[in-house]
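The instructor's notes for this session suggest beginning with a concrete chain rather than abstract definitions. Hand out the sequence below and ask the class to guess, before any prediction is shown, which regions might be ordered.
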Amino acid sequence: MKSICFVSNKYPNDMDPNGLVFVQQLVWTMADIGIQCSVICPLAVNLYPSLVKVPYYVEETTEKGNKVEVYFPKYFGLGQSHYIFGKSPAPLTTALFTKAVKKVISSYKLLPDAIYGHFITPAGIAAARIGRELNIPAFLAHGESTQWSIDQFGAHNVAKELENIDGVIAVSTRNKDLLIAKKCVTKDKIKVFPNGYRSERFYQMDKMRARKKMGFPQEDFIVGFVGSFDDRKGVLRLQEAVGMVKGVKYACAGKGKLMPGGPDCLLAKPVENALLPFFYSAIDVFALPTLNEGCCNAIIEALACGCPVISSNLSFNDDILDENCSVRIDPGNVNDLASAIEALHADPDKLMQMGKAALEKASKLTLDTRAENILDFMENMSCKRSSL
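After discussion, reveal the predicted structure:
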């Protein structure tokens, strides 16, 4: 397999530099291992007018000097999550999205060896349809934190659309099991590949240097958070828990409606991607009392920077966390969260051991390894297709 066309409904651009950065990182890693990569990301400019300023075509250069072609066609979308006159707009939005992708492929005469859609709707179904029409292998990544997109489109309809899909990349065992339970794909077509990180971006830095870069005090015990400021991620539960532990500060990288604050809060705003390794290296513990995830990139990035993790004991974390590098808690229980923070604050030796275990865990979660494994899976499934 020499060329792959990636399809996504979000991708970093001038107006939305943090839009699904992890998709870009996978694409760049694929390009760095020798795959000719193109990306098609249709933008619904009626829903997000500022995106009209995004150029139609951009040529990206990876950190290793490889080229990636990115197309941003504009289209009229109706969204997916809100009902219109009692009906879900997801099928129509997916049809319009697919049309925009097909137009790019036709206009620019793209002839990829495979097409890869990120998330089931609209990109995954678009990939399945185009794969069927062009008679090329089609794949999708299932990384959703919930099943709302399946429910909006209808599980039966999703199953019909994905009958020809050659393979599904699930980010967690929990996601794989849910997709099979919904009967959207058969278990022989789906395999688990937890998310990964680019090791040249995320690595442990000197803590004092990192704190100086972030403007954090050198002496404080700091708990870090990265994610949306909402109830699912639990930013206010973290604020409450920190308030229960004497001598602890916290810093939050993100944005949203539920703004953290108070005298113990050192930061409550977005942190650009280039600064995140400094952020993770500056904190003592990474805490994410999240209620639901596909596979959390922030947790993996924190591990890569040698940061012990406090997070949910629910199954979506099972593939990336263990007892050596993390403390698993009931994400809805503030007392559990406070106790975990207090225990690590009081035990520097344990904190150091967990930091070493975090680095060891992260060594198995690099994006290079993930990309190679996904590519092997895609090639094997493509071979099965050709032998039928």
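Then share the key points. The CA atoms of residues 87 and 294 lie 27 Å apart. The radius of gyration is 21 Å.
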